Amino acid sequence: MGLKTWALKKSIWLYHANVGACNNCDIEVVDCLTPRYDVERFGMQIAESPRHADALVVCGICTRQARPRLQELYRQMAKPCLVLCIGSCACSGGIFRPCYHFAGPVDKVIREVDPEAIIAYVPGCPPKPEAIIAGAIKSLGALPS
Amino acid sequence: MNPIWAIPLLVGATAGTIVLGLLSKFIDRKVTAWVQWRKGPPWYQPAVDILKLLGKETVVPEGARMTGFLLAPLLGFAAVCVAATLLWWVHFNPEAGFTGDVIVVLYLLTIPSLAIIIGGSASGNPLAAVGAGREMKLIIAYELPMLLAILAAIAGSSKNFQLGSLISVSTTGIAATIGCVLGFIVVLMCVQAKLGLVPFDIAEAGCEIASGPFIEYSGAPLAILFLTKAMLFAVLPIFVITIFWGGFAFGSIGAAAASIGKYVLVLVVLTLVRNTNPRVRIDHAMKFFWFIMTPLAALALILSMC
Fold first, then answer.
1. C-alpha distances in angstroms, A39 versus A121, A127, B27, B51?
2. Which among B33, B52, B210 is the nearest to A11, CB-wise?
3. Residue burial B142-181, b: 16+ Cβ < 10 Å; e: rest
4. How many angstroms separate the CA atoms of A106 and A89, rounded?
5. What ipTM goes with this model?
6. Across the A/B interface, how many CB contacts are shorter than 8 Å?
7. Cβ contact (<8 Å) for A38 and B29?
8. Do B56 and A54 lie within an 8 Å CB cutoff?
9. Does B124 contact chain A (CB < 8 Å)?
10. CB within 8 Å: B29 and A52
11. Class level of CATH domain A3-140
12. Of B149, B159, B157, B161, whose CA–CA distance to B177 is shortest?
């Protein structure tokens, strides 16, 4: 493992994107920053601009409105980067799968831009903060070394 | 001094300031974590952040002016390196400075802010333009009280625009002491604004204009911008302590401990102010600096001259 990958794994900055979530997963994602879970222990921080981010944290089914914007967000990020699909909706569409505004699960939408994208799935409605942290840490193993 | 020595001096001072700046950033983040009842990052976190950014892709947006966008971070970095060298040099050899080096250091410390304005304007992003405009207004707001307060310190001690003499000559008299303490308070507020820490982080404003001038930066230029900010976080407290608090001495263990204590105390005060205040609006910040801090600094100057 090179120095570059080591540094990347020790310092993941997150950009939080809500692409049609019910706000429940967003609350759980923000929970990870609170004193009880404190992801800054692992060097994780919320980044303010997608250009600074290393991981795109996506919540919600990808709606038709959000789809081009999510793809643009992924294009704007500096590579190498990760995508974390938080919650059942982001992973598969969940109970909203047959709805008219559903524009494909998040992984398909991202893979249209970059077939090689590293995508981690954290299912749950909403997933626990522990599960989100575990998913984020596991996805680091998929980074190219 | 032989000019050949300037290069190793510059490299040494830059390396030292980078180490000190990253450690100071760690102290800042750890104290912030403690204030919020968190555990906080490991001690090497700021260094790892810089390393990671150096290894990432550098994106130059389509609408950006490439030259200005990529050169601006280097300009700010270079200015901080030279300012750090002047400050360190004076500490190891108090005779070394020249008349007016206080003014040179002040000029050099303004350049990083100007570099941020240039870089933000060159990136072609509307939010970066808003941030650059705010940074400009903030400079106009804090420069006057800062200069007045530093003038108060100079009038109260050596009456000489030389860093070396400011370290060796101490203030005498009650009025001058009160003036210098007032000046110290004013300068700490101005340093807060210069570093872009929370009550005055109007130019970056994370959740409002998405880090303003930095919004389009990624990879190595962003690493240099963050490194410059980390170095400023070390250089500005050193500068303030040099002018107002007798500088640093490493002759004996007691003196060294006192020096480190002074430095950490200033850092912690800056961090605590950052953690206990909300962000103010730009017009409130200008009113604060012009109508509260400037009269206070003027009073400090008058008291010091008595």
1. 18, 16, 18, 19
2. B52
3. bbbbbbbbbbbbbbbbbeebbbbbbbebebeeeebebbbb
4. 9
5. 0.83
6. 76
7. no
8. yes
9. no
10. no
11. alpha beta
12. B157
Residue in B with minimal Cα distance to A36: B38
Q: Is the pLDDT reported for residue A44 higher than 70?
A: yes
Of the residues A1, A4, A8, A11, the best mutation for testing chain B's interface (the one with the most B CB atoms within 10 Å of its CB) is: A11
Question: Which tokens in the block code for residue B96?
Answer: 């070394």
> Which of B37, B39, B215 minimises the CB distance to A41?
B39
Q: Where are the domains of chain A?
A: 3-140
- Are B219 and B50 within 8 A, CB to CB? no
Please report how the helices B45-54 and A3-10 are oriented relative to each other, as an axis angle in degrees rounded to 10: 130
B282, B287, B289, B295: CA torsion to nearest 10: 180
pLDDT digit string (tens) for B95-116?
Answer: 777 777 888 888 899 999 999 9
Contacts of B55 in chain A (CB under 8 A): 3-4, 7-8
Q: What is the pLDDT of residue B245?
A: 78
- Cβ-in-10-Å burial (0-12, 13-18, 19+) of B65 comes to middle
User: What secondary structure letter does DSSP report for A140?
Assistant: H
Q: Pick the residue of B28, B38, B62, B127 with the most A CBs within 10 A to test the interface with A by mutation.
A: B38
- One digit per residue, pLDDT tens: chain B, 306 residues? 667 777 888 888 889 899 999 999 999 999 989 998 888 888 889 999 999 898 888 888 888 788 888 899 999 999 999 888 888 887 777 677 777 788 888 889 999 999 999 988 888 888 888 989 899 999 999 999 998 888 888 877 767 777 777 776 666 677 777 878 888 889 999 998 988 888 888 888 777 888 888 888 888 899 999 999 999 999 999 888 888 877 677 778 887 888 888 888 998 899 999 888 888 888 899 999 999 989 998 888 888 877
Those of residues 47-76 in A touching chain B at CB distance below 8 A are: 48-49, 51-52, 54, 76
Tokens in use for B159?
């009456």
Candidates B38, B48, B210; nearest CB to A49:
B210
The residue of chain A nearest to residue B209, with distances taken between CA atoms, is A48
Which pLDDT value is given to residue B227?
A: 92
